[in-house]
């Protein structure tokens, strides 16, 4: 099964619920919404609509990250899965919203500054061995070797998230694909019909449950075009 959606609501929520069956919640990364807000989203969405959640940046990103300033958050001892109270409190808040949304998948996106070091691997090991495994955990690394990614994902049972136009997933019970555009135009890239055909073939070869999340400027249009491709496949 191939599930298609966008990283964030790309149009009015009520219309999005009509056009799509999946969304990756972005607000949980910057600053989690109030439980009442998440509850309203779940109530307003169709029963077969699926939310996935992007984990709060307090877990994954250091305080110097520009995303903290964007969210208006002041944090001190956090990020990089450090075994601190701030990090674990952030996990509890992420989990709380995920439960309200009935989400089964949580994405942990780490920045390029999260290097492939023994300390960072140990932090991940401690973090994921300390929290409840009631969800499918997805990890989107930056700049790590294939060997290290595969080893960490296998040991900690994490789904390796990739951009299908850049790499192939190395491990996971499901496939979780995030499409960020190209290196030339970055997020302003508009996917061509040929690229969407490539994406379809890429998904066919994986032969498992697949989440396809568009994360470019034209994500709404491109995601709808890909859904149309699936209907005529």
Automatic annotation (TrEMBL):
InterPro entries: DUF72 (IPR002763), UPF0759_sf (IPR036520)
Domain of life: Archaea
Pfam families named in the record: DUF72 (PF01904)
Gene3D superfamilies: Protein of unknown function UPF0759 (3.20.20.410)
Name assigned to this protein: DUF72 domain-containing protein
Lineage, highest ranks first: Archaea, Methanobacteriati, Methanobacteriota, Archaeoglobi, Archaeoglobales
